[in-house]
Amino acid sequence: MTAIDRPPKATFRIDMLWTDSRYRSSFIQVVALFVVLTLGYLLVQNVVANLAALGKEFGFSFMRTPAGYDINQTLIDYTSRDSHARAAVIGIMNTLLVAVVGCLLATIIGVLAGVARLSKNWMLRTVVGVYVEGVRNIPVLIQILLFSALIIGTLPQPRDFRGEDPAASMYFWDSVAFTGRGFYFPMPIFNAGSAIVIGALIAGIIAAVVFGRWAKSRQQETGEVLPVLPIKAALIVFTPIVMFLITAIFVPGWPITLELPELQGFNFRGGIFARESYVALTLALAFYTGAFIAENVRAGIQSVSKGQTEASYALGLQPGRTMSLVILPQALRVIIPPLISQYLNLTKNSSLALLIGYMDITGTLMGITLNQTGREFETLFLGMAAYLTFSLSIAGVMNLYNENTKLVERTSATGMGLSVLSFFGGATGQWEQLKKGDAVMHNAYGIRGFLNLYVLFYVVWIALLINYVFVEGASEIRPSYWDWGFFKQFSALFMIALSGAALATCLFKNARFIDMVALEFLFFIFALLVGFPFAALTDSLSFVAIVAGGAAIRLAIFGYTMFGSQPNLTFFHRVRPGEA
Amino acid sequence: MSEAVDYEATQADRSKMTISDEEVIQIRSMNKWYGDFHVLREINLTVNRGERIVICGPSGSGKSTLIRCINRLEEHQAGDIIVDGIELNSDLKNIDKIRAEVGMVFQHFNLFPHLTILENCTLAPIWVRKTPKKEAEDVAMHFLEKVKIPEQANKYPGQLSGGQQQRVAIARALCMRPRIMLFDEPTSALDPEMIKEVLDTMISLAEEGMTMLCVTHEMGFARQVANRVIFMDAGQIVEQNEPEEFFMNPKSDRTKLFLSQILGH
Amino acid sequence: MSDTTSKVAFVASGPIAAAPPPANSTGPVGWLKENLFSGPVNSVVTVVLLALLLYLIPGIIQWAFIDAVWIATSLSECRELGRGACWAVIVERFDQFIYGFYPAEERWRPDLAFLLMIVAFVFALFDKLPYMSEAAYHRIRPYGLLYAACYPVIAYWLIWGGSIWGPLLFLATPVVGYFVSQAVDKLEHATLPPALASLPLGPIAGLVAAIVWIMFLIGPFSGLLGFIPIGLEEVESRLLGGFLLATIIGVAGITLSLPIGILLALGRRSGLIFIQTICIGFIEFIRGVPLITLLFVANSVLAYLFPPGSNLDIILRVVIMVTAFASAYMAEVIRGGLAALPSGQYEAADAMGLNYWQATRLIIMPQALKISIPNIVSTFIGLFKDTTLVVVIGLLDPIGLITNIQATPEWNGIIWEFYIFTGLFFFIACFAMSRYSLYLERKLATDRR
Fold first, then answer.
1. What's the pTM value of the predicted model, to 2 decimals?
2. C29 — contact with chain A (CB < 8 Å)?
3. How high is the ipTM of this complex?
4. Fewer CB atoms inside 10 Å of the end CB: C or N, chain A?
5. pLDDT in tens, A530-550
6. pLDDT of B133-142, one tens digit each?
7. What is the C-alpha separation between A289 and A135, in angstroms, rounded?
8. C-alpha distance from B17 to closest chain A C-alpha (Å)
């Protein structure tokens, strides 16, 4: 025996699963996996048994049957003979219409109110404060109903505009009518020659951008500061106006005319018609969300310390420049993330449209379609997927913004990025190291470059899959090797989810190339198992073309990553924090 | 506090510090109130080009407010301030002119955290002096070398130590080629070893003949560099004298009390 | 240099007394000048706003108070009595707004439940009380906390009624679990192989026993005990409504979501990739869809997930989905609190030799929760406002009642009064809570200094 008595090498015992730190976390996860799978199994069993008891099926083929109901405001053509799928698309477009216009209005209201709350004027401050506190503390549903009642109850009916001495009149030289049924606006009609004017507008915008760059480089060379903003505005505004007049000389009639709403009988005809429910919903959401945005704006501006303004003044910068060069760039970092989540809230709150009869996705797909077909599972699944898509895209944008504008600190604090994308970056990558380095390095790395190609590829791919599954060939998906029963429709959905995951992986900077490859591998194995008919995706492309094209794109990406001008090593191995 | 720093290593060369007869700042019976509080009372002060003035006094005595009035970060309500021949009143043009000529260094640095060190230094020259970018960067690098941190030019303020940040703040002010520099307690937010690097920078600035007004408690610096020490209390200038006289032979009782508190251990 | 000396030396002759500031910079005039008329733009803004307010407010006061009718039995009677607001409808239907269609003679039960809830919250939230010595409070507090833990069952029984035995046996679940775990603990040491001895078999057995007890034994036992008829009259869920319903859903959602939210937040930070994935998936899914779709799920799909034949009450289903909704938001709030803790706290806990759960329970969570309190209150305000959405699945919350009352012939045609009344109610409740959270935030900020 030697003097040193080494402990015997530990052999595996069953209790090391929960006492040894090497196995413990895996063991816990396996147990959790088991519990979740059991629960999932039980739930699916219950669903199958319940559906069978009611004699219901699971499938999306009902989406192609005629909807049989009318929708009172549509952006694209729709009749009640169109399919449920088209009705759902109309609903999605209506949701987006409210969301986009609402977000724009809410931003304007919020920024104005937020700045007003910081005003020196006591009266303004107080009035805006009452608005903000009042609106924030009342349920948005009550406000929507209130706006709806306000429009229906206080605005004149179209018939009030009739007669010699009408009870109501139109505004802005008889071009706009506010009625209890909705608002009527003039609609631009594009006649012959309008292409020239639109071309001039585009040219004006391009010229403004070019001028901006030229002015910047000129300033860098000579130091001269040009009045960039007025010149840009003039370029954008006057180029199309001048072309409009010139075109009018050579082409008979005006190139663009306005179709005014006109009273015919008991209603207005022509122009753009915004239904009262749409107006009420948009305005209520804009004022509600605007109050929250106002608080964000106020907090953002207040977050920039007074010392920053003083330092800027002491250097001789004027108040306007101080605002644009010093205060705003810092305040925006604080304002934008909550602003985007307010946009998200507005989009989600737009689902309340249902209660005032505006037909958004909740009203069509999850409302009438659900009631008519009795397909609760499928409609709610699709509706939630639509909202999730909106939310996750907005969250993705926010994440990219946060990543790109994080302030560089000596000790990088643990932030609380709330995102699904961070899901793919369990360990922080080389990016973290880069942030501690030079600004030059900071700019050199990033999402730019080859990734755009990959993102594009996946967007097209997902669009094709969705189109195939929901529009063209839903019922043809048959598992070729065995019968999946309840899951047969889910196979394609799962593939979409996998592709989405791969896409999200591309979007996340810290993801390794290998992660993407793994997801794709999973995808293809799965597709092979269910016998997915790739060739059916598009009529023009053959299976060979898809496989060869995909391989070519991957090779190109691989080459670019390895040998391109900015080789990005993080895509091959993950740098753990602490490893320099 | 100040005695902890060893100044023997960097003796300032007073012979280089010349003072001309040109009066660059004239303050005549200036008064200022915060609400009902009379914070500056009948201030009269004339500063010649090349003078190094140290202003000291207990906290709340109005010394910071006084120098912040000189570039109109604070507004005075009565009396005249004339800087470089320009009268400071509500005329925005005059304010802009004066601010471009007067550099200021703050207690808490107030560097712009979203800009790199170099961008911090070139911001004002580009937008106020309308200097070409290349030239502004050359000037900035020159001053960054002078404050001995050219290698940090592409980093962000958050990545530097307090002393380095304060030296950048000095370089940033110098990039505007100011004729007067105001220092508002530049070392009181710093650790002792960082105080030295900042004071060294200020001493070398004095040797080049910069007109300086410093609010500071660094009495060693005052002795070594200043040609005048001003003691303020309760909003008024209580006593001013050459540093030797001021420290050795204070006249007013309040000055004596203050000096015994700050120096006498 | 010497010739400047004479110029430089200066000593003040004496202290200068404080002079009053120049007129019109202080006092009411100064205030007006500073706050209302500090420049041409500001003056215009002030005048315009003043004109607007003078134009609007008298009309509103006239309508809402001077010309208003407070007592009437129908809208037509209202219109005869005055041209202003018809508050008579609110006065007449006030009880309905509070209780919905809860039977009038049983309304003392929700009242009592509400009072008991306040007592439970006092015990749960405050660690000292005014007008009570600390020692005395500390003596009774453990019992108070026990009572607070039992309160949900008590409230359930009070509001829905029925036999007392079911709720009582449900309350006995922890006792059953405790005895089983003790019995297994004793058994364990005698008979088990050493490899299994390190597993917490006692607690596991207790948990299993509790589940078996709830799922299979409570029903038959309460049936057996049913021959002793102690109970309250049963009240159906569809009769519940008004602010009572909003409060039930809001309070149930927020109290249940707190523990679930804590677990989700810990799971999201655990570093165990599978658990993390499940937590993130759940949180982001819930936060990505509107509450209204979750309520649809509660209404139509949720029942499919339970074994055939189990008839879940609609309010229970709504509470399940609202809890899921609130816990996702709560998880993010608590994660924020956890992230705000300095890492030194974790290291110190590790260094003291505490294991994960001990460190979390004793060191991390108390601090993280304290930091999160203002945000928890905000989440609660949001949830309370969102309870109005249950109207989409036909429950009679305050807004559902409005439609209901508008449909009656006497009050058909009234619109504004309803919205103003419910809006005002929610405003007062939510504004008070938001002020409270602001106060907590300030208090916290000073505590941490």
1. 0.81
2. no
3. 0.88
4. N
5. 555 555 555 555 556 656 666
6. 889 999 999 9
7. 9
8. 25
